[in-house]
Task: inverse folding
């Protein structure tokens, strides 16, 4: 049986957090389109299905789209009738005081209050959206939610337990070429024995078994690696709980050729065994071959 495509329609009050929701759904692997015209939604779903590249789609529909109030519910009905789709309507809300405060902080005009008070526009929009809200599958009140907590709520409701959405990049690098600017955690492996001074290993890299055996043969290297792996294993669940979608761990040595590559390779292998999505990147290893 073919798996149904997951489709989420994101709507709700202006200023209630739709932009933050877009980023959250993108991190969950959804193809997201903002400001979708209700009249084009079903055709767009067909195009995405035919591409075969995505199984999850999120579409933002709000009052920026012409005819929004009259067309979004009929569009929702038509999509929900399809047996090949699993459709949910997410409605984001917040109380009037918070919405007015958010508009004042950003100094934006409410779409329905171009010539009047922000509160007038908020109240008008709430009345116009009352029927749509009553048809929502999920309602999230963002009044007291921080951006991080909104992301966590969306992950819990729409992530379907997909812990593998958390992504780890393991990077090796050479300190002589500069620190990686995008690293979250940096570990220094320059205290380990350096194969550079062993003639038969000098022109090899940490991708070669001979170098790996040399770097990891001592008690110091074994204990360091065990502590590092334990540290990361304990930290990863905390990063996920805090709503972080990715983490870059950089391992450095002098030239980024031997020690850092060895440790990075081993980390990537063990974290993959733990079930994490891991990308391995040796930033400077190619520079060694150009000397």
Result:
């Amino acid at each position: 049986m073919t798996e149904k495509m997951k489709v989420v329609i994101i709507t709700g009050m202006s200023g209630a957090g739709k932009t933050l929701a877009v980023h959250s759904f993108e991190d969950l692997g959804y193809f997201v389109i903002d400001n979708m015209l209700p009249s084009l939604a079903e055709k767009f779903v067909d195009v995405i299905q035919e591409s075969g590249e995505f199984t999850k789609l999120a579409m933002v529909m709000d009052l920026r789209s012409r005819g929004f109030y009259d067309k979004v519910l009929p569009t929702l009905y038509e999509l929900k009738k399809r047996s090949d789709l699993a459709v949910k309507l997410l409605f984001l809300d917040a109380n009037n005081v918070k919405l007015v405060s958010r508009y004042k902080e950003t100094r934006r005009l409410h779409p329905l209050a171009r010539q009047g008070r922000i509160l007038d526009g908020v109240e008008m929009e709430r009345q116009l959206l009352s029927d749509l809200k009553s048809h929502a599958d999920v309602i999230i009140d963002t009044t007291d939610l921080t951006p991080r907590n909104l992301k966590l709520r969306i992950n819990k409701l729409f992530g379907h337990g997909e812990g593998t959405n958390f992504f780890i990049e393991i990077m090796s690098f050479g300190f002589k070429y500069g620190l990686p600017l995008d690293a979250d955690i940096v570990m220094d492996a320059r205290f380990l024995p350096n194969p550079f001074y062993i003639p038969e290993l000098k022109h090899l890299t940490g991708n070669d078994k001979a170098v790996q055996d040399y770097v990891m043969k001592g008690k110091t290297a074994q204990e360091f690696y065990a502590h590092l792996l334990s540290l990361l294993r304990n930290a990863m669940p905390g990063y996920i709980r805090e709503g972080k979608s990715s983490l870059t761990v950089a391992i450095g040595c002098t030239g980024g050729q031997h020690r850092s590559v060895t440790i990075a390779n081993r980390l990537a292998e063990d974290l993959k065994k733990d079930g994490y999505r891991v990308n391995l990147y040796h930033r400077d290893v190619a520079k060694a071959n150009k000397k």
